[in-house]
Amino acid sequence: MVDLFKRLDAGRPPPPAEKAQEPRPDQKLEPAQKLLDWLQRWNKDTVCMKDILQYGPNSLRNPRKALDAAHTLVRNGWLEPAELHRYDMHKWHIARNPVVPPTVKWQRKSQQNKQNPPITVAN
């Protein structure tokens, strides 16, 4: 005789296979995107580490996270290192680019040309 629970289990679909929880690729860029969104509202041409830690997003109040997010923006062309008057200071010029909404992965045309130079054919 078939048990009641076996009969109920027979009509149930199989459980989904468990997937390993891998971080999404854009999850690594989330702190940099938050910093970029905040920089769009920052009304000065330069920003230093002290400004990010004091006035920036709450999730970036940790100096290491803020510095990593800023370096990501430097690699993607949104920030440019500025001249410093102290050896232990971090300061950047903000590149105001006409992109709505701004994303971290956007590249300026000058950067795109450096990575993919135009092909010229010699006659």
Order of secondary-structure elements: HHHEHHEEH
Major sheet strand order:
1-3-2
| Name of the CATH architecture of the domain at 26-96 | Orthogonal Bundle
> For the report, how would you describe the main beta sheet?
3 strands, antiparallel
**β content, as a range?**
5-15%
CATH topology descriptor of the domain at 26-96: Arc Repressor Mutant, subunit A
Q: Count of DSSP helices?
A: 6
In short:
The protein has 123 residues and is mostly helical. It has helices at residues 4-10, 25-28, 30-41, 49-55, 63-75, 109-115, and strands spanning 46-48, 79-81, 91-94.
Helix and strand arrangement:
Elements: H1 4-10, H2 25-28, H3 30-41, E1 46-48, H4 49-55, H5 63-75, E2 79-81, E3 91-94, H6 109-115
Antiparallel strand pairs: 1-3, 2-3
Helix pairs in contact: 3-5
